[in-house]
Amino acid sequence: xxxxxxxxxxxxxxxxxxxxxxxxxxxxxxxxxxxxxxxxxxxxxxxxxxxxxxxxxxxxxxxxxxxxxxxxxxxxxxxxxxxxxxxxxxxxxxxxxxxxxxxxxxxxxxxxxxxxxxxxxxxxxxxxxxxxxxxxxxxxxxxxxxxxxxxxxxxxxxxxxxxxxxxxxxxxxxxxxxxxxxxxxxxxxxxxxxxxxxxxxxxxxxxxxxxxxxxxxxxxxxxxxxxxxxxxxxxxxxxxxxxxxxxxxxxxxxxxxxxxxxxxxxxxxxxxxxxxxxxxxxxxxxxxxxxxxxxxxxxxxxxxxxxxxx
Length: 310
Prior knowledge:
- Mean pLDDT is about 80; it is low at about 10-25.
- The chain has helices at about 5-10, 25-35, 40-55, 55-60, 65-70, 75-85, 90-95, 115-140, 140-155, 170-180, 195-200, 220-230, 245-250, 270-290, 290-305; strands at about 160-165, 190, 210, 235-240, 250-255.
- With about 300 residues, it is an alpha/beta fold.
- The radius of gyration is 23 Å and the shape is elongated.
- The longest helix has 22 residues, at about 115-140.
């Protein structure tokens, strides 16, 4: 089958990302296109579906044939590329085949040094949307349920919930502690590795440790998790699959994304971790029962309202 007919046949089938993981094309770019489809115009969506259906055909065909296959005008093909933050069709094809530089080291994997503010806005938001969409499709619901049950059991038994993270993950750990606290669920967090080890050393059966790490390879966090688990505490780890921390914990909530662990300004990973924390905290609160938590929530709200200017 010729490449044109192949692309035309597959256009109506929609995104086939599972076919593209080893195709030689830039997987993050394809994921970003898939996530951004709903924000595009109907005509641009047809161009996007054409890319996802057969990136090989898209990378080789001229603009006139691409427009004919997608049943759009030639300017629409170029406009689609620019809507995703690329200079035009040539730049888009170059990135698609891996021929262009994708990412500024230590800042964000998809932006370029000469990107405009609009380019950066589109790329950062699309990367975030892609990560959220991917997590929604691939999240292990069973593991989340197990983590929620462990936290609820700890709360009901009056035992300790301890949340650990270092570096950027310490900010996420603080957000998790604040989230539980605002919901009326006592929790403690430590951002110092010595305090974390001391806390883990006195954890016992019935307690629950939540350990958050982007790479899952931070020695101090692994040691803290292992110590808490040896002492009988339940251990929930939010980290990358296959990492040492994922293996050290009992309950693994996978946080997998294309952002490198060496990123100086982690963006997608931080937002993904925050989203997982929101899912878990909301589930825990609802499992405990809003009616049980409501008196404390009302009192807290009343106190906060007194701090506001009328």
